[in-house]
Write a structure and sequence with these properties.
Number of strands: 3
Radius of gyration: 17 Å
Shape: elongated
C-alpha cells in the first residue's frame, strides 16, 4: 500500500467493511487471505503546530509455514505524519 501524500493536502478516506466471520473453533480457518486496510486523513494542532496525518487500520495475514495456507489475521493501526520521510518518523 504505497501512496504519496503532500504535507499540505488531505486525501479522501478509504473505508473498509470487514465481512469476515472469525471463530475460535478447532476447524475454523481464515477464509479471506487478502490484506486490506481502511485509510483516513486527519489533522491535529499541537502546541500551535498543525500536523496532517494518515490513520491506517487493517489486517495482516500470516501463513502456515508448511502448507502456505492462511493461518491468522492480525489487526493493526498506524498513525503517520504526512510529508515526512519514513526514515525520519519516530
Amino acid at each position: 500500500m504505497n501512496h504519496t501524500v503532500r504535507s499540505n493536502e488531505l486525501l479522501p478516506d478509504q473505508p473498509l467493511v470487514d465481512t469476515t466471520v472469525y471463530g475460535s473453533g478447532r476447524d475454523d480457518a481464515v477464509s479471506d487471505p487478502t490484506e486490506s486496510a481502511a485509510i483516513t486523513q486527519h489533522e491535529v494542532t499541537i502546541n500551535g503546530r498543525k500536523i496532517l496525518y494518515t490513520a491506517t487500520a487493517g489486517h495482516l495475514v500470516t501463513r502456515d509455514q508448511y502448507s502456505a495456507q492462511p493461518a491468522a489475521k492480525i489487526f493493526y493501526v498506524a498513525f503517520t505524519a504526512n510529508g515526512v520521510a519514513p526514515p525520519s518518523r519516530p
